[in-house]
Design a protein that fits this description.
Oligomer: single chain
Bound molecules: zinc ion
Radius of gyration: 19 Å
Number of helices: 4
Largest sheet: 6 strands, antiparallel, barrel
């Protein structure tokens, strides 16, 4: 698969694409289908992979895609076992996302970046990890003095930033250029493997800039709002904040 065929990285709003099957494999417990291009996100950076369907143009037969993943340089699709049969090499298909789920993940992911941006800007706390499911997520910070009062402040500040209609931009930079951006160091861009020449960044203009491989909405207004549903100590310094989306 040509890297240019990995469309999720350049157009997060593309929910369907016509493609050709270039490989089919028995996989482990599920058949694996490789297409010459795809809209599916393979998972990573705390964002789960997409789900959806592959529909064969010739006869309208369709298969459920339960997950996508990176394999070698490709994004590959895992068929739901038991759907019966499988597409064949050369078939022309439509690869279609479960768009409601993907869009919710995009909103959730952008909300988490807004949270990171606020916590860094207002408290200087570094992110150490994060994870999400559609509509809810968590982030871990090196944030010794976190408290319930601060959590309420953080929630209000994040919601103010989401309402401020910041554009969200994707950039791909040469490695050296990315390393020269002070903000990126806090998200541990220096941990990226040696071989990576291009660094993809997600910028919430005016708020947050991170090295990131995920899919995001184009403007913070699309996120809606967030509610902080909890926070926990994961040690003296490490604290976890949980959020969920609310429709603002
Ligand atoms: Zn991210």
């Amino acid at each position: 698969m040509d890297p240019a065929g990995q469309l999720c990285y350049t157009d997060a709003y593309l929910r369907s694409v016509e493609a050709r099957v270039i490989a089919v494999d028995d996989g482990g417990d599920a058949p694996i289908v490789v297409l010459d291009r795809t809209v599916f996100y393979p998972g990573g950076g705390g964002q789960p992979s997409d789900r959806g369907t592959i529909l064969r143009s010739a006869d309208g037969r369709s298969w459920t895609i339960r997950a996508a993943k990176k394999s070698g340089g490709d994004i590959v699709h895992e068929l739901e076992p038991g759907d019966g049969g499988r597409p064949e090499v050369g078939d022309v298909v439509s690869a279609d996302l479960d768009w409601a789920r993907r869009l919710t993940l995009m909103r959730t992911h952008t909300a988490l970046h807004a949270l990171c941006g606020v916590v860094w800007r207002d408290y200087g706390a570094l992110v150490t990890g994060g994870n999400m499911e559609p509509g809810a997520g968590r982030m871990d910070f090196e944030f010794e003095r976190m408290s319930g009062d601060l959590v309420a402040e953080i929630e209000a500040a994040v919601n103010a930033e989401l309402r401020a209609t910041h554009d969200v931009r994707v950039n791909v930079l040469p490695r050296e250029e990315a390393f020269a951006i002070p903000d990126l160091i806090r998200t541990k861009v220096n941990l990226l493997p040696e071989g990576i020449e291009q660094i993809r960044t997600i910028e919430i203009v005016g708020l947050d800039l991170q090295a990131d491989g995920g899919t995001h909405v184009a403007n913070t207004r699309e996120v809606g709002g967030i509610h902080v549903t909890g926070y926990e100590s994961k040690g003296r310094i490490n604290k976890r904040i949980r959020i969920e989306l609310v429709d603002a």
